[in-house]
Prior knowledge:
This protein has helices at about 15-25, 30-45, 50-65, 65-70, 75-80, 85-100, 145-160, 185-195, 210-215, 230-235, 245-250, 250-255, 260-275, and strands at about 5, 10-15, 50, 100-110, 115-125, 125-135, 140-145, 175-180, 180-185, 195-200. By secondary structure, it is α/β, with parallel strands linked by helices. The strands form three sheets. A five-stranded mixed beta sheet has the order 4-5-6-8-10, with helices on both faces. It has a three-stranded mixed beta sheet with strand order 2-1-3. A two-stranded parallel ribbon has the order 7-9. A hairpin with a 4-residue loop joins strand 4 (about 100-110) and strand 5 (about 115-125). The model has no long low-confidence stretch (mean pLDDT about 95).
Amino acid sequence: MMKIIKHSGHKVPFDKEKLKSSLKRSGASSDLIKESLAEIEKQMYDGITTKEIYKLAFEILKKASSGHAARYNIRLALQMLGPAGFFFEKFISKLYAADGFKTKLNLTLQGKCVSHEVDIAVMKNNKITMIECKFHGSKEGSSDVKVPMYILSRFNDLKAIKHTIFSNSETIDSCIIVTNNRFTKDAQDFANCSGISILSWDYPQDNNLKNIIDRRALYPITCLTTLSMIEKEKLLILDQILVKDLISAPDSLSKIGLSQNRIKNILNEAAEICKHR
């Protein structure tokens, strides 16, 4: 069986079904998926890296549709919300706001013992949840058991007293930890045992980040293939986080100095990405 090399340097057997699933998630048709797999397999060799396979798939999809390529690019697009992860926190806040939550970012709250910086607080049905974001700048980074252990102690200190977040005299009812990559098995087990919720690229199985993003078409602007990285950074600074933001507020594209022809191409790609769902 052909072996491929992961980002970590480990050699693993090539998983055709995994590649097929990622192509399907891009919105590609059955025929395009079949053609793409055939073309990729034709160019593969023992010891090819996952990065090279990704590049092959991306280029094939881009020739067919920039929208397919953009959706295939989601995980890398989340990594582009760094390097510090502040824009990733804004992105997560947008996901919750789209689901009807009130949100606040970057809070400093006094606990029973010490004060704590909280990435995001969200409220729905008068229940408040604190959200802590763990951003990883590379695909192989993962959050281990120390992360939920540490955040549990902070949550326990904060939930012990009342706060002023959205109004006066509020309590924090629950805690969620979100990462753009993965949690280790120990981290998952500890979180589940201690009552903390966790959300990652592929966990929980049926309601993970990739599913939420696809289901609600809440794509980060960093997935767009018609924008350069510098242009993406300029838009993020203008608080344009989601592709949907660009469609509803296209003036931001003029603000960063793009021509009308470029703007038209970018908005066409944005519409194609969101139309998929």
